[in-house]
Amino acid sequence: MTRLDLSNAIMNWVHRPSFRTPAAAMDVVGTFISLCEEDINKRLRSREMVVRVTQPVDGQYTTLPCDYLEMFDVRLQNGPELEYQPRPELANMHWGHWQQAPGDPAWSGYTVPSVPWNAGQPKFFSVVGQQVELIPFPEDPDAAAIIPDLELAYYQMQQLGPNDGDTSTVLNARPSIYLYGSLIQAAPFLRDDSRMATWGQLYTAAITAANEEHQRARTQGSRLRQRYRRLA
Predict the structure, then answer these.
(1) Per-domain residue ranges of the chain
(2) Which residues, including other chains, have CB under 8 Å from residue 84's CB and lie 6 or more apart?
(3) What is the rounded CA–CA span in Å between residue 143 and residue 141?
(4) pTM to 2 decimals?
(5) What confidence tier does 115 reach under pLDDT thresholds 50, 70, 90?
(6) Which of 115, 186, 187, 223 is the most interior residue, by most CB within 10 Å?
């Protein structure tokens, strides 16, 4: 489905050939789609949204792609997966390094001999705004220069372009989510609040089904196994 197909479907569902507004140049249907897309990016986490890219490491803080929504996983290219840690935990690790407190998990979270700071490669990551923080990060510039690129798998922000032929991965695979979500946004404009409940139920059901399908696909039908965190 394209943007034009979606716009026509919205008009057909509300039985309107056009919209009249005080602002003649206002793209009403486009506004419905934009508001719908904002909600999709908040609530939907389906497999169609997952993309994989390689990202050069340009420092302890490396900028994330501009369409980044949420992390799926992070690896060193041709290397191990990095383990997520909340930012306060990374701060404790850094504090422990400077205080030379090896083996004290309450403060450092790692032992200095097993995670060398100057020459070691990153083992943990956290997300800070539009950046990913890597720990430990070598203080030696020569050691930092040989860190492999990051392989990022993340949920990509859905941004439907302005042209009639534009589409997005979610619109292409799950048009009902865009349609019902846009109709919810149209209801207050049309002063037809009675339809919001119906469209809202259809939209929520489509979002839930996509999210659950993604979770099943991640485990391939197998039971989830508990993973124990290793800090050293």
Answers:
(1) 3-44+160-219, 48-155
(2) 71, 74, 124, 125, 126
(3) 5
(4) 0.81
(5) very low
(6) 186
Please state whether beta strands 124-128 and 83-84 pair in parallel, antiparallel, or not at all (unpaired). parallel
Residue with tokens 């196994």: 225
Q: What is the DSSP string of 128-158?
A: ETTEEEEES--SSHHHHTTPPPEEEEEEEPP
Looking at per-residue confidence, does 135 or 142 come out higher? 135
Q: Note whether 148 and 78 are within 8 A (CB).
A: yes
pLDDT at 147: 86
What is the torsional sign of CA 82, 88, 92, 98?
positive
**Residue bearing tokens 């008009």:** 11
**Bridge partner residues of 70 (DSSP):** 155
Amino acid at site 91: A
The position carrying tokens 């941004």 is 159
> How confident is the model at residue 219, as a pLDDT?
74
Residue with tokens 């042209």: 163
Of how many residues is the chain composed? Answer: 232
Q: How far is it, in rounded angstroms, from Cα 90 to Cα 123?
A: 11
